[in-house]
Amino acid sequence: MAITLLYQPLPFFSRSVEKPNPNLRFPAALKFGGGGSAVTACSSVSISDPEPRYASVKSFAPATVANLGPGFDFLGCAVDGIGDFVTARVDPGVRPGKVSIAEISGAGGKLSKDPLWNCAGIAAIAALQMLGVRSVGLSLSLEKGLPLGSGLGSSAASAAAAAVAVNELFGARLSASDLVLAALESESKVSGYHADNVAPSIMGGFVLIRSYNPLDLIRLKFPQDKNLFFVLVNPEFEAPTKKMRAVLPAEITMADHIWNSSQAGALVASVLQGDLPGLGKALSSDKIVEPRRSPLIPGMEAVKKAAIDGGAYGCTISGAGPTAVAVTDDEERGKVIGERMVEAFLREGGLKATAMVRKLDRVGARPIFSAPR
Questions:
Q1: What would the pLDDT profile of 49-96 be if each residue is shown by its tens digit?
Q2: How many domains does the chain fold into?
Q3: Is 187 in the active site?
Q4: Where in this chain does the record put each GHMP kinase N-terminal domain (predicted)?
Q5: Three-class SS state of 196
Q6: Which of the residues 241, 316, 323, 328 is marked catalytic?
Q7: Do 282 and 299 sit in the same domain of this protein?
Q8: Which of 38, 172, 230, 309 is deepest in the core (most CB within 10 A)?
Q9: Which candidate in 143, 185, 187, 290 is catalytic?
Q10: Domain of 96?
């Protein structure tokens, strides 16, 4: 028996990013319960024309690891210490209600400064629409701290940082779900309508996307007293998201569906319990997506074996790749695991790679500086 997989985005959010629509209704409700925190879209933001509280706001949004093995398109987590920065400024030289991009650094000239073709610009415009801003224009400065196409949620971090900066500039009126929706507008233009990068980048920690229509997000609380380190190994290799999605099957067997569902359930349980061995085992057990993508990344299978042989609890591809991610509960062991993974990429794949060891980011995107008016 086969199961057809559908990747078509659900059009519950306006696709227009050029003209504010005063009739749009956006989610603004947060509810908490169970082992995690649920964010649901169930009420509307008050549409007005708020005054800016600051002259400028600088925000940071962390990198993310999406999919986490069996959680394709519905599980992700945020990673501490690496990410993108966006500064949003009130700019009298920009038409009211519009956004311009003044500067981009760290991207090697590869990103457009047209706000309608830039992740930060699209998310900023969506946030302005939600806020109902019509009296002032904004300019953005984007500082890329993440490599493009790395599998670490580079586009999502830019979008998340922009949405948070714009929101803070006008008094932080939008909820977490609103910000995810704004950032999703950007993701839909780049890699498809999925929130497993933008949701954890904005909310922090582990996030499960329960549904898109309505948007229903569940934050999975990893215990505070447990150590969790991600070993991130990024090879010098391009793995465009669209190409990596193109290799995925349109249908899967019932057996693979049952297997992956059970592994995803085990992964969620392991996160909530702080069970690192269980988390790593589930992380490594995808039978649907990873087997199709791994052969496209030279040396990936050997890298995964090197990580586990080196003491990692588990290893998989981060997002669409090419970054490999392993998990451990000890930072020093993580450094050794990273060295072995780098060696495997070079030996088996002929690729140079860099390794870093990072903690779970439990906070998510946040403003880090504001200048008074």
A1: 999 999 999 999 999 999 999 999 999 999 999 999 999 999 999 999
A2: 2
A3: yes
A4: 126-205
A5: coil
A6: 241
A7: yes
A8: 230
A9: 187
A10: 54-221+362-372
